[in-house]
Amino acid sequence: MRVVATYMQATEISAAMSAVSATTAVAVLGWTVWRARNDERQKALDRRRAQAEAVTWFLDENPPSGSHHTRKAIDAAEFGASTEGMEFADLVVLNASTGCLYECVAVFSDFSRHPETEPLARRLLGVIPPGPTRIRLPMRFFPGEGSGAWRHIGAFQQNRPMEYLQFRDHDGITWKRTWLGELQELPYRKPGTDLPDYAP
């Protein structure tokens, strides 16, 4: 009897260990599948963001003089808004990808608060090729001398006059790069292909 009992206990222990092993195997298999799917999702996200991640920008208050490569916005908004007392500076877009950026827009939220400067709030930049591109734009009103001038210089060094750069990548995805360097995907918003006629 004692031998039979021992045998039954050994059989139960063996069955329990087999069950634990099977459960562990299922858990490991499940984790492996989850990890593989998660890795694929991350790779897909990385591929989706790849071109946009290679795009950044900054403001240059004192660009080199005599540059022959500085562009202007394509919307001619200066004809529809007063730029008297404003300081012009260069928006420098650094496109380190191998493809162009499409439907690029520079957004200046401060200008949208005043009717006379509202046309300057969303500047159409067109297509930006690979490499650095400079666009000459009115940025903000110059504050004059004193502490205001120092704050003005500090604001340029932090990209504050401009809120963000919006662009569409070669896959048709719209992104924005903020003045803090944050990259965010946006729902598609056509910047406007019918340019306003500001000609006299």
Describe the structure.
The protein is an alpha+beta fold and 200 residues long. It has two domains: 1-50; 54-186, no CATH class. Helix content is 32%, strand content 29%. It contains two helices and nine strands. It has helices at 2-53, 147-157; strands at 55-60, 70-72, 86-95, 101-107, 122-128, 131-141, 164-168, 174-178, 183-186. The strands form two sheets. The chain has a five-stranded antiparallel beta sheet, with no helix packed on it. It has a four-stranded mixed beta sheet with strand order 1-3-6-2. A hairpin with a 4-residue loop joins strand 8 and strand 9 (183-186).
Q: Which descriptors apply to this entry?
A:
single chain; about 200 residues; alpha+beta; 2 domains; 5-stranded antiparallel sheet; 4-stranded mixed sheet; about 30% helix; disordered C terminus
Tally of individual domains:
2
CA-CA gap between termini: 112 Å
Which stretches are poorly predicted, pLDDT < 50 over at least 5 residues? Answer: 193-200
Enumerate how many helices there are, as a single number. Answer: 2
List the helices and strands and how they pair.
Layout: H1 2-53, E1 55-60, E2 70-72, E3 86-95, E4 101-107, E5 122-128, E6 131-141, H2 147-157, E7 164-168, E8 174-178, E9 183-186
Parallel strand pairs: 2-6
Antiparallel strand pairs: 1-3, 3-6, 4-5, 4-7, 7-8, 8-9
